[in-house]
Amino acid sequence: MAKMRSTLTALALGVAVAGCAPPPPYSAYPMQHQPVRQDRLLTDAGFNVRPADSPRRAAQLQRLPPHRMLVRYRNERPIYLYADPDACRCVYFGNERAYQNYRRMVSEQNLVGDQYMAGRYDEPGSDWDAWGSDW
Asked: What is the average pLDDT score of the chain?
């Protein structure tokens, strides 16, 4: 009887201690239950954010397909961009290294969908100078 009481006491103590434990880390949850923070993903990968803080930039932002990774070429180099007219009213710009980091992070997090793949974008009449010349 004493052995059974000590076993039950140990079991009850274990349950009580487990109930006080902190929740599992963020990465322990299945991916489908984790919100994807696209802004964080892009900046962590090395993309630079440019706000649409002028009429020229705002007009250009409205012409870009929203929430899609795009690529255009400047001086024969790929420039990757991601327009976010909703959350930040901005465009994220990145080079090949930033895009490869982004792809690796997307793969590691098991994210799927066309929005994570770059599609070529060259619209005639686009005002790319509105975003500056250093991208």
From this structure: 73
